[in-house]
Amino acid sequence: MFYTEDGHWNKVTGPELGGFLGQVGTIDGKHATAAETTEVAWRALSFYDQVALVRVTDKTWSPSNLTVYYLTSQGKLTRLDGTSPPIHMINAEAPIKITDDNVLEYLRFFCFFVRGEDGPFLISEDIDDPALPKGMDPQTRKVVEGTLRPATYEGKNEQGHYLCDAIVFYSNALFIANFAVEPTGMIQMLDDDPVAADLPVRVDMPIA
Predict the structure, then answer these.
(1) At which of 93, 122, 149 does a domain end?
(2) 68/49 same-domain check
C-alpha cells in the first residue's frame, strides 16, 4: 500500500538523497529537509509505465506523522497535495493505463490522495490497515472490523467504465460506496450509504 512498508519501497540514499533534497528544499515554506533527518523512498505504480511515487518523511516536522508525496516523471516532480488536478495532469501526460488487474489499486491510490475537508476517502478493507485510526476502544474496533471487507471489481458498464465497490472510511464514518473509474483516471462515486456513523475516531494521515 502507498502508506505501508510492504516491500515495494526503495530507499533513496547517498548522493541521490542529497540531490533530491536540494530539488525540493523547504516544503510548503515551513518543513525543512536535511539528509540527517529526512527519509525518502520511491515505488513503482502498476497503472503508470514511467511514473513513480516518492515518499518524504521527517520526524522533526510538525505534525511528526506528516508524509509528503510526489509523482516523478522524467525527473519532474509533481506534489500530491490532496487535490485532484495533479493526478489528472499526470494521468493525461503519462498516460495512465488502467486494466481489470490494477483498477482497484488505482481506486485506493486516488481515494487516499484526493481529499475532502475531513481527510482521505480511505478504501478500508482490513482491520490491520495502518492507516486506520489508532487506539480504537473495543466496541468501536468491533464495529469497524465487522464492517470492513475487500474492495471488489464488478466489471465494466456500457461506457467502458470500471465498476468497483468498497468500504470507505471518511471523517468519522464508514460508507459502502460504488465507483465508476474511467480509462482516463476520472472517478465518479455513484452511490454511498453510511453503515457506521458518528464513530469516536478519524483517519489521521496528513499529506499537506
Answers:
(1) 93
(2) yes
**148 and 110, same structural domain?**
yes
Give the span between the Cα atoms of 86 and 93, in whole angstroms.
Answer: 11
Does residue 203 lie within any of the structural domains?
no
Q: Which residues pair with 72 in a beta bridge?
A: 52, 77
Which domain, by its residues, includes 14?
10-93
Please list the ranges in the chain whose pLDDT falls under 50.
none
pLDDT in the model for residue 1: 79
| Centroid of chain to Cα 19 | 25
With vertex at residue 12, the alpha carbon angle to CA 93 and CA 124, rounded to the nearest 5 degrees, is 65
State pTM to two decimals. 0.96
SS3 assignment, position 111? helix
Residue 192 sits in the same domain as residue 108: yes
Nearest one of 80, 100, 82, 99 to 90, comparing CA atoms: 80
Strands of the chain (E only): list them. Answer: 10-12, 38-44, 52-58, 67-73, 76-80, 115-116, 119-120, 122-123, 152-156, 162-170, 173-181, 187-196
Domain count, the chain: 2
